[in-house]
């Protein structure tokens, strides 16, 4: 493959990894809510009140306020669709994708003051796909599907300590696993003397995976003596993500394969929230979550391509220039029914992706809105708990100007962007 073509293919295809990594509807690498049905129904506003094994994720200090040991299974199947100016058009509808989501958590009381937590669960991810796209022409085209799949899975081991009847602290040690399977299609041009020929480009990064073993969550919680009021804070450390896998490129009639590595970070996050029992039947929740996504200003690439004189480190960095994110969470819980608790929540999420650096399979460069309703009940003398919730998430921007240089001379596409997701959540918890 000619050197100029190869470099242009890499510049265009380097967009792919950030595209997949960024297409969570709420922005960045994460949804605004995750997998526990009870706390999802509260909009994820759990830092002040979580008191079971899910505290390993929401606030490890909450483990110390657990009333019993428990194990829980969480399922959150999600359908997501990303739409945008794919393949040079102003607006193209993507394919609806089914994304499994969930986890397993457990808690065990070691003593009156110490509680152990453990679990494996989804920590983030993305999915987007466009079908039947053709780039280039005149016998130099590429036709096929392109999209991305990202999975972030966390294994955690937590320990919480109850200082007194009102205060607790806790921490979770995290192993974070990342998987990515990504394709990208675009076009470039070659100079054929008097004319420039449009050439189709199809590049794939497949079976990229890696583990970071240096993550922590730290938390503190306060509960009033009468349990009317609670406050909590949950800190998540940054983790460095490095994923290795296969690389392939097709530019017109030419092709090559090799190995690739991509580097980015899952940034620091901090949440703080309160809850208050306003009457015998109603409790209100509020929480703010800050994520330092400004740290994801670029994504770096290395590659080792067999049969070429270029060798390693030919993939450039991708300029993402993400912005810091805020999630504002509001929720209410109603206890007026004998056997049921009703819940509802709303989350407002600020945009992570700037309009200037938008792309069809990025997060939509707009604020996102999340609406959730749910309920919970118990069986077998309160030893078996069942919670469920339904969620709708939406972000849209009808007039994105784009134009920023994502990599080299590859400009961000202008046009209309929107993303929506539907999810159902179910948690079955056994207390013993």
From TrEMBL:
Keywords: Cell outer membrane, Membrane, Signal, Transmembrane, Transmembrane beta strand. Residues 1-26 form the signal peptide. SUPFAM superfamilies: Porins. InterPro entries: OMPP1/FadL/TodX. It is a multi-pass membrane protein. The keyword Signal applies. It is found in: Cell outer membrane. The keyword Transferase does not apply. Belongs to the OmpP1/FadL family. This is Outer membrane protein transport protein.
């Amino acid at each position: 493959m000619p050197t100029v073509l190869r470099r242009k293919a890499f510049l265009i295809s380097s967009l792919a990894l950030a595209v997949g990594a960024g297409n969570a509807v709420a922005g960045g690498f994460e949804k605004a809510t995750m997998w526990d049905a009870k706390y999802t129904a509260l909009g994820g506003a759990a830092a002040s009140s979580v008191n079971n094994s899910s505290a390993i994720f929401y606030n490890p200090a909450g483990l110390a306020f657990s009333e019993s040991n428990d194990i829980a299974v969480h399922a959150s199947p999600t359908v997501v669709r990303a739409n945008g100016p794919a393949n040079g058009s102003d607006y193209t509808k993507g394919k609806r994708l089914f994304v499994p989501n969930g986890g397993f958590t457990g808690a065990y009381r070691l003593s009156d003051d110490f509680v152990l937590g453990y679990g494996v669960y989804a920590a983030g991810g993305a999915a987007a796909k466009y079908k039947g796209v053709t780039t280039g022409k005149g016998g130099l085209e590429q036709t096929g599907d392109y999209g991305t799949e990202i999975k972030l899975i966390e294994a955690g081991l937590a320990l919480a300590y109850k200082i007194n009847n009102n205060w607790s602290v806790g921490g979770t040690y995290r192993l974070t696993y990342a998987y990515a399977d990504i394709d990208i299609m675009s076009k470039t041009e070659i100079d054929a003397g008097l004319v420039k020929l449009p050439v189709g480009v199809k590049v794939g990064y497949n079976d990229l995976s890696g583990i970071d073993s240096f993550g922590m969550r730290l938390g503190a919680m306060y509960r009033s003596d009468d349990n009317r009021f609670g406050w909590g804070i949950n800190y998540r450390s940054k983790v460095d993500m490095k994923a290795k896998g296969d690389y392939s490129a097709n530019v017109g009639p030419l092709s090559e394969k090799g190995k690739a590595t991509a580097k980015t970070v899952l940034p620091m996050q901090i949440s703080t929230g309160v809850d208050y029992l306003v009457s015998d039947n109603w409790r209100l929740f509020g929480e703010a979550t800050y994520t330092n996504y400004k740290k994801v200003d670029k994504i770096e690439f290395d590659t080792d391509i067999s049969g070429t004189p270029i060798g390693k480190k030919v993939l450039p960095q991708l300029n993402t220039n993400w912005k810091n994110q805020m999630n504002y969470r509001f929720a209410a819980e109603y206890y007026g029914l004998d056997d049921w608790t009703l819940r509802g929540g709303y989350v407002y999420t600020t945009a992570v992706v700037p309009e200037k650096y938008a792309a069809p399979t990025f997060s939509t460069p707009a604020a996102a809105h999340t609406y959730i309703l749910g309920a919970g009940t118990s069986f077998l003398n309160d030893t078996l708990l069942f919670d469920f919730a339904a969620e709708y998430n939406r972000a849209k921007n009808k007039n994105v100007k784009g134009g920023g240089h994502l990599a080299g001379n590859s400009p961000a596409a202008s046009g209309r962007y929107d993303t929506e997701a539907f999810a159902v959540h179910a948690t079955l918890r056994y207390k013993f």
